[in-house]
């Protein structure tokens, strides 16, 4: 405000009630060259209003009617501390002057001593300016100090003042937050105390001594670790600056920042980066990076090993140019389907794409996985991971082949095979199962075995069987009737074993059956056959027994039936020898005739035995030939009559449709001779025997009747057995072969024989023989 | 005086042969075809010796011998059994019914003649 040229242009406020005094002082000032605005106030109201403005000088009368200098001074100083306030008074006591000076007046001048007035004004104006300037400077300083304090108190960084040896002179309040120590604890102590034990001396070495020794260093930056009060270690980044005073190092200012988090993050980054690097380099999987255009930009060691790229990174911008890539089915792999291309195109990852790489004679099978990644240039590339699956592939192929074989084996096995899951639902169904049941695999899969196939009566039993199979117990050879598609019941011999997964957990069961419907039929047929055979065997055995009995019968028969004629022959021979001298040739001839007759008799006997033997052995053949049956039966009558010494009259009755027929004469003769001879033999003392023959409609019926001893019921069933002789016949000579021969002869000609007999009443035997008349 | 011999057998040719031989040996011979006839001949002709078969219709030789041995008048007559069957049972049976001799068919003429002579000498 008051400057150089305008030193005397000053604003003066007069507090004066006397016009004369005012003019007097003003004139004095004008005279001295003071110009400028001036105003006169006479009371406190006017004074307060005037003080709205700023004044360079206030001149006040000591005593005004409504205001005295003391009050005016008080009002003024309330508003303006520095304006010079000079009291001018006509009468003034020393006490008043002292009080006024004490109150803040700058001078006290007596009106009649105005000579001192001007120098006082000059002095006070100058003083006031000095005061004003000082005040301003102080105020600015205070403001700055306040600002600094605020700054220091509020910054997060730690701000410290150190002496040239590092000792804390001042620390910002953030010290508490950063170090855990408060102001009092830090000031006058050395920062080295906060360092880790093995780093103590670091600050002295790197900061304090440097500043002390080299004045050209402007600042030092240092990262170091610091142990907080509670023991936690933090990283600090400190910037230190020297403070010189008169070229002498006075203080050192440090600002420190807690960089623990950044440091840790950085360390972590470094660590993970190096880990990532080492992982990528050391993993067995090959990794290839493609850029956004699908060109190889980098790959790891494994990739070069797998692909055989070695260090030729620059030569390989893509794989497809260097290898004939093929698909698992050995067809060429379409370039546009390569995983990195697909991923680049669609943005979607590909996984487990198997690609073959023909290498010399082998094929290298690789599994490709691709996914997008962000390149440092901000564009998306593709990262491919490759693993060598050749061994897996070979193994898989083998396993697949084995599995295929097994599947085929199951499917084509010649037994019904089916699988059930935990819920009893069918999940396996082979061809034979389809064939037997009539249900195809497609329509049966997922259906429940029990509901579909099992007969009601077996459902509970089969449910229990399956339960026990699910508990790990095998079911063997269970005969199970099931329904087929057509509703037919088929019997299956059922075996079930639990089906386990690789961890040996039961995941279902596998049933193997066997269609034993035929087997059962076969078994039944077999049983039947066995029964038949047993019967046949029994019969054979009986026959054998009979044969043995037959033999013994033959022996006893022979002893009688042969010995008797032999005796006759023997006696006749003896006779011829003994009495030859006495015998006429006629006598001798007669004896020899008798011998020959006995020989003939024995021959018949032997023939009968042989006939039976042959017929038993089945060596007799039927030889039908034309025969005149009328003549035949009459001849038979004659023969039997003679051979039985005419003891009975054989009464013949013939009812023949025609005389000629076709029949085996020998067999017919055996029948008729034996029947007639028996009839005569077993009716001793009777006179007649009847022979009744009817030939009609191809059937020859022969009836022989006697009135003899008859046959009891016990013997009727046995009379046709060879050498059997009825109870009644024992006393009558015979071979026991007659009826047996008759029976054989009838059977051989498909004929029929019936016996009617009453003990002691007589016997009638009827024989029917069918004749083939053609 | 000639001894009289009765032969019983249902086989006529054999009867004839034995008859011829015994006649040559100067015996009087009677024959029968069965046991009934034999009984009648014993009663009517009083033979000095009887030759009988075993297996005959209605009454067999053993039954016939038992009958003879039960008759006081005839029980002493020597009896020869001439049988085709030579089982032990038959021989025992013959002894049981007190036949004097058991001859097995076929036997020689000499054997038969000697047996007859010795039995007749013993009884006379």
TrEMBL record, chain A:
Q: Which UniProt keywords apply?
A: Coiled coil, Kinase, Phosphoprotein, Transferase
Please list the residues that carry the modification 4-aspartylphosphate.
61
Locate the Response regulatory domain: which residues?
11-126
Q: What PROSITE patterns is this protein classified in? A: HIS_KIN (PS50109), PAC (PS50113), PAS (PS50112), RESPONSE_REGULATORY (PS50110)
Q: Which GO terms describe its biological process?
A: regulation of DNA-templated transcription
Give the top-rank taxon of the lineage listed in the UniProt record for this protein: Bacteria
Say yes or no: keyword Cell inner membrane present.
no
Xref: PANTHER family: PAC DOMAIN-CONTAINING PROTEIN (PTHR43304:SF1), PHYTOCHROME-LIKE PROTEIN CPH1 (PTHR43304)
Q: What is this protein called?
A: histidine kinase
Organism field: Fulvivirga sediminis
TrEMBL record, chain B:
**Assigned keywords, A-Z:** Phosphoprotein
Answer yes or no on keyword Phosphoprotein: yes
Q: Where is the Response regulatory domain?
A: 4-120
Q: Does this UniProt record's set of keywords contain Phosphoprotein?
A: yes
Q: What is the species of this protein?
A: Fulvivirga sediminis
The name under which this protein is listed is Response regulator
Query: Which Pfam families does the entry mention?
Result: Response_reg
Residues with PTM 4-aspartylphosphate: 53
Which PANTHER family does the record cross-reference, listed alphabetically?
Answer: RESPONSE REGULATORY DOMAIN-CONTAINING PROTEIN, STRESS RESPONSE REGULATOR PROTEIN 1
Q: One of this protein's GO BP terms? A: phosphorelay signal transduction system
């Amino acid at each position: 405000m008051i400057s150089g040229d305008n030193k005397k242009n000053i604003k003066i406020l007069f507090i004066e009630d006397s016009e004369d005094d005012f003019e007097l002082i003003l004139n004095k000032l004008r005279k001295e060259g003071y110009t400028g605005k001036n105003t006169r106030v006479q009371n406190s109201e006017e004074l307060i209003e005037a003080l709205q403005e700023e004044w360079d000088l206030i001149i006040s009368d000591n005593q005004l009617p409504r205001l005295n200098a003391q009050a005016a001074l008080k009002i003024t100083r309330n508003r303006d501390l520095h304006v010079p306030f000079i009291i001018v008074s006509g009468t003034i006591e020393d006490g008043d002057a002292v009080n006024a000076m004490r109150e803040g007046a700058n001078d006290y001048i007596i009106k009649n001593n105005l000579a001192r007035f001007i120098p006082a004004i000059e002095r006070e104006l100058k003083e006031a300016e000095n005061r004003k300037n000082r005040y301003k400077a102080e105020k600015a300083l205070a403001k700055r100090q306040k600002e600094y304090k605020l700054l220091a108190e509020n910054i997060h960084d730690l701000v410290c003042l150190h002496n040239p040896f590092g000792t804390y002179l001042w620390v910002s309040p953030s010290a508490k937050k950063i170090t855990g120590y408060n102001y009092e604890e830090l000031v006058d102590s050395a920062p080295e105390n906060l360092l880790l034990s093995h780093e103590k001396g670091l600050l002295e070495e790197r900061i304090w001594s440097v500043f002390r020794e080299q004045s050209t260093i402007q600042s030092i930056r240092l990262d170091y670790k610091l142990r907080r009060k509670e023991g936690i270690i933090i990283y600090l980044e400190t910037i230190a600056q020297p403070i010189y005073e008169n070229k002498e190092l006075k203080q050192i200012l440090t600002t420190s920042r807690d960089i623990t988090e950044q440091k840790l993050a950085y360390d972590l980054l470094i660590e993970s980066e190096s880990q990532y690097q080492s992982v990528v380099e050391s993993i067995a999987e090959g990794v290839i990076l493609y850029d956004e255009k699908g060109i190889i930009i980098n790959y790891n060691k494994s990739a070069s090993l797998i692909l055989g790229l070695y260090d030729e990174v620059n030569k390989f911008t893509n794989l497809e140019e260097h290898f004939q890539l093929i698909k698992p089915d050995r067809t060429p792999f379409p370039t546009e389907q390569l995983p990195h291309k697909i991923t680049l195109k669609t943005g979607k990852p590909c996984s487990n794409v198997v690609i073959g790489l023909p290498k010399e004679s082998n094929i290298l099978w690789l599994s490709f996985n691709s996914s997008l990644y962000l390149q440092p240039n901000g564009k998306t590339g593709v990262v491919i991971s490759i693993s060598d699956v050749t061994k897996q592939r070979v193994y898989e192929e083998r396993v697949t082949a084995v599995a295929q074989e097994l599947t085929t084996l199951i499917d084509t096995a010649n037994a019904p095979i089916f699988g059930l899951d935990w819920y009893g639902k069918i999940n396996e169904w082979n061809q034979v199962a389809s064939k037997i049941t009539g249900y195809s695999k497609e329509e049966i899969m997922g259906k429940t075995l029990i509901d579909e196939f099992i007969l009601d009566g077996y459902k509970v039993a089969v449910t229990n069987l399956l339960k026990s199979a699910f508990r790990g117990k095998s079911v063997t050879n269970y005969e199970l009737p099931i329904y087929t598609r057509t509703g037919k019941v088929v019997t299956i011999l059922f075996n079930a074993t639990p089906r386990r997964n690789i961890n040996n957990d039961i995941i279902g069961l596998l049933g193997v059956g066997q269609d034993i419907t035929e087997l059962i039929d076969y078994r039944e047929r077999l049983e039947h056959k066995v029964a038949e055979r047993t019967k046949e065997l029994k019969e054979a055995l009986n026959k054998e027994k009979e044969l043995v009995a037959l033999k013994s019968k033959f022996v006893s028969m022979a002893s009688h039936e042969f010995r008797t004629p032999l005796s006759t022959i023997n006696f006749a021979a003896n006779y011829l020898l003994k009495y030859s001298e006495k015998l006429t040739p006629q006598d001798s001839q007669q004896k020899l005739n008798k011998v020959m007759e006995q020989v003939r008799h024995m021959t018949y006997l032997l023939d009968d035995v042989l006939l039976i033997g042959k017929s038993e052995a089945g060596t007799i053949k039927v030889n039908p030939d034309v025969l005149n049956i009328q003549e035949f039966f009459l001849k038979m009558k004659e023969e039997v009559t003679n051979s039985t010494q005419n003891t009975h009259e054989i009464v013949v009755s013939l009812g023949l449709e025609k005389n000629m027929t076709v029949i085996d004469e020998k067999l017919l003769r055996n029948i008729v001779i034996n029947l007639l001879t028996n009839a005569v033999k077993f009716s001793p003392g009777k006179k007649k025997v009847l022979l009744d023959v009817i030939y009609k409609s191809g059937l020859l019926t022969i009836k022989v009747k006697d009135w003899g001893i008859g046959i009891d019921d016990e013997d009727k069933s046995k009379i046709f057995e060879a050498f059997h002789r009825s109870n009644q016949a024992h006393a009558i000579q015979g071979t026991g072969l007659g009826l047996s021969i008759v029976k054989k002869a009838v059977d051989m000609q498909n004929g029929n024989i019936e016996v009617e007999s009453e003990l002691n009443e007589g016997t009638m035997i009827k024989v029917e023989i069918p004749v083939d008349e053609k | 005086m000639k001894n009289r011999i009765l032969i019983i057998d249902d086989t006529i040719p054999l009867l004839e042969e034995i008859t011829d031989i015994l006649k040559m040996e100067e015996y009087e011979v009677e024959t029968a075809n069965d046991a009934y006839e034999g009984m009648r001949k014993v009663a009517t002709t009083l033979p000095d010796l009887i030759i009988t078969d075993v297996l005959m219709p209605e009454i067999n030789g053993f039954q016939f011998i038992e009958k003879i041995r039960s008759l006081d008048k005839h029980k002493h007559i020597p009896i020869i059994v001439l049988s085709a069957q030579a089982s032990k049972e038959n021989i025992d049976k013959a002894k049981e019914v007190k036949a004097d001799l058991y001859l097995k068919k076929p036997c020689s003429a000499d054997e038969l003649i000697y047996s007859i002579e010795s039995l007749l000498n013993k009884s006379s």
